[in-house]
Every structure is written in structure tokens, then in C-alpha cells.
Amino acid sequence: MKSIKKVAFIICLSLLLTGCGDRLTEIKDAASGINAAADSAASALSRDVHSVRAMTVTYNEETFTINDLFKTILRDSRWEYDTDEARLLVNGTWMDPLFAEQQWDDAYKKQLAETGEVTVTIFIQDDKINSERSEVNLTFNGEVILQMTGEDALYHLYVTYIQK
User: Is-contact 80 89, C-beta < 8 A?
Assistant: First the structure.
């Protein structure tokens, strides 16, 4: 009697596990497919962003990467790269001494350090920065309070980096 119960139990358990095994395989396959698609999308995007961030700039006999530039002169940098337009957009919070030539008092600088948003737009052409199309904006309380374009904008960022 005990052996019949054991055999019946094993048969029932086998039937239950067989159905679960198929479902578990389906779930694993679906998760694997989602993970592979996510990895593929991430590597396609990040490859472009990382290659642009790794580009080197030489200015006044100093060489540095675009990544080093923005990590040094902006706080909380966020990067976007549009491959169709070859446009790098970097947003970050203002940090002193960026735009040091402005006559801002300490209270205003404190407010800028909290909510001043710097947006830098750079276009890449032939693996180099197209300085003529570069743009830097400082926005405070929803209003653009400072705007620079072209080579002057880039050179200002470079000088700030080198002096820091």
C-alpha cells in the first residue's frame, strides 16, 4: 500500500513539474530575449556617446577629453548624443568659476549653484568639434540669462577647465 501511494505521488508530482518546467522555460526565453534587446540598444547608444565623450581636445598646449571638460566645469552632467545630427547635448548645474567674468554677488552665485542650468550644444563633424555651431546657455528661473555661441563659447569652456 505504501509503495502504491509513493508511486502515485511521484507520478502526480512528475506531471505537475512537467507542466511547470515548460512554463519556466518559456519565461526564461522571454527574459533572455528582453535582456538581449536591452543590451543591444544600450550598446548601440552608449558606444556613440562614449566615443564622443572620449574625444580629445587640445587648447593652449593642454590636452583633455570632452568627458573631463564637462565633469570638471559642470555639476550633475547629463549627456545626450543624436547620431542623426551628430549633436552632443550636455546639461548640468552651474559651478563657479564658469562665467567668472560676470559680476554676480555671492547670494546670486549660491542660487545659480542650486538651480542654474547650463546647456551646451556641440556638433561633431569629421570626428572633430564644429566650433562654429557650438552654443552655451545658462538658464535661471526659466529664463536664459547668458548665451554664447561659436568659438567664443567653446574657448570659454576650455579656459574655465584649464584654470580650474
Answer: yes
3-state secondary structure of 80: strand
62 three-class SS: strand
Q: How far is CA 3 from CA 6, 9, 10, 16, in A?
A: 5, 10, 10, 20
Task: Report the C-alpha gap between 7 and 12 in whole angstroms.
Answer: 9
Give the Cα separation of 77 and 133 in Å (integer). 21
Q: How far, in whole angstroms, is CA 53 from its chain's centroid?
A: 10
Rounded Cα gap, residues 115 and 101, in angstroms? 19
Q: Considering only CA atoms, which of 158, 89, 160, 75 is closest in space to residue 120?
A: 89
**Cα–Cα distance for residue pair 160/148, rounded to 1 Å:** 14
Task: Give the separation between CA 15 and CA 32, rounded to whole angstroms.
Answer: 26
Contacting residues for 75 by C-beta, under 8 A, at least 6 apart: 92, 93, 94, 95, 113
Is this prediction's pTM over 0.85?
no
* 125-136 pLDDT tens trace: 988 999 999 999
- The answer to whether 117 and 139 have CB atoms below 8 angstroms apart is yes
